[in-house]
């Protein structure tokens, strides 16, 4: 697997012009206001698991349009209130099983895991959240569901769910609402960026090898899934490219990063052909808050894997004491 993208010195300076829709701020402000207006309270139900070192709650909280979204909340021992990390998932994954998320709890943090609506059947051990909203013709997967209009696009719903997940975890009495971080890799990294740009007063943001950034470059640079779903769609809907990329601009991590101000730790892999390095650096360089990035020169889409987590814990420990 070769280095195929820009050299590292050019990546560090890479600040491309991307489409910014004229109604971007209004679109998201209204979308989130409508979701909150739909009402509903999160429900936290004790879950039976073999785990004895933490308390596990099955969660249902209102997401986009008030739709019920599943999650897990794992609480460390003690009454709290505990700082919390909201974890977002990679493409095709569901919330899985609680024991998959023990590291944060072992480090003393509550961990809230958001299920990804309409996914959860590609890898892992499954999800529990349907997506009740239909769309027009789409390629296999979720990348092109409703892609001809930002109002109907799938990621409008998923990003709104993410912001409402932050709202929900702040409602639990064992969570310190002032000390909530968001985290994710690949699709989860793109969702974390969206949550960072659209939520207020986050403690920290962890963004690993993020998907959903600098769409026009990504689609033209890699033939890997899931970006290839967009390529496949446009190869059939030949007249739709302008509409499609206009829609995607509302959900581009580069635009959302420009709204985010919480301290952030990114990671990028220079041999990553799924989420090319230039697309990651485009979002990182646009990020408006304090930031740093870990570069893995000889890795693909696995990035730093478990090697990145201690860096995140160190940053979070400092943020939690601040």
UniProtKB/TrEMBL annotation:
Entry keywords, A to Z: Hydrolase
Name of this protein: Cephalosporin-C deacetylase
Catalytic residues in the record: 186 (nucleophile), 272 (charge relay system), 301 (charge relay system)
Entry annotated with the keyword Nucleotidyltransferase: no
Organism: Nonomuraea jabiensis
UniProt-listed Enzyme Commission number(s): 3.1.1.41
Binding site for substrate: 91
One Pfam family recorded for the sequence: AXE1
Molecular function in Gene Ontology: cephalosporin-C deacetylase activity
PANTHER family referenced in this protein's UniProt entry, alphabetically: CEPHALOSPORIN-C DEACETYLASE
Acetyl xylan esterase domain segment(s): 1-312
Gene Ontology BP terms: polysaccharide metabolic process
């Amino acid at each position: 697997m070769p280095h195929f993208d820009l050299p590292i010195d050019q990546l560090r300076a890479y600040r491309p012009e991307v489409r910014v829709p004229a109604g971007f701020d209004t679109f998201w402000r209204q979308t989130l206001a409508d979701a909150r207006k739909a009402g509903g309270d999160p429900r936290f139900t004790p879950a039976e698991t073999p785990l004895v070192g933490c308390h596990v709650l099955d969660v249902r909280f209102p997401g986009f349009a008030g739709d019920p979204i599943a999650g897990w909340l794992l609480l460390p021992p003690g009454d709290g209130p505990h700082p919390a990390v909201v974890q977002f998932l990679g493409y095709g994954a569901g919330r899985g099983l609680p024991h998959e998320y023990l590291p944060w709890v072992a480090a003393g943090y509550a961990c809230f895991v958001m299920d990804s609506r309409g996914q959860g059947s590609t890898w892992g051990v499954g999800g529990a959240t349907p997506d009740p909203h239909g769309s027009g013709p789409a390629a296999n997967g979720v990348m092109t569901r409703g892609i001809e209009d930002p109002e109907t696009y799938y990621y409008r719903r998923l990003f709104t769910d993410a912001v409402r997940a932050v709202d929900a975890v702040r409602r639990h009495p064992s969570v310190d609402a002032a000390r909530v971080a968001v985290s994710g890799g690949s699709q989860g990294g793109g969702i974390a960026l969206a949550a960072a740009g659209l939520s207020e007063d986050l403690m920290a943001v962890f963004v690993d090898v993020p998907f959903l950034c600098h769409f026009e470059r990504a689609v033209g640079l890699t033939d890997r899934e899931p970006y290839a779903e967009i390529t496949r769609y446009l190869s059939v809907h030949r007249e739709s490219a302008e509409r499609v990329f206009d829609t995607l601009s509302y959900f581009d991590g580069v635009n959302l990063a420009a709204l985010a101000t919480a301290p952030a730790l990114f990671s990028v892999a220079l041999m990553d052909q799924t989420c090319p390095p230039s697309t990651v650096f485009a979002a990182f360089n646009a990020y408006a808050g304090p930031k740093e990035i870990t570069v893995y020169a000889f890795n693909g889409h696995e990035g730093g894997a478990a090697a990145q987590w201690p860096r995140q814990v160190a940053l979070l420990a400092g943020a939690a004491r601040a």
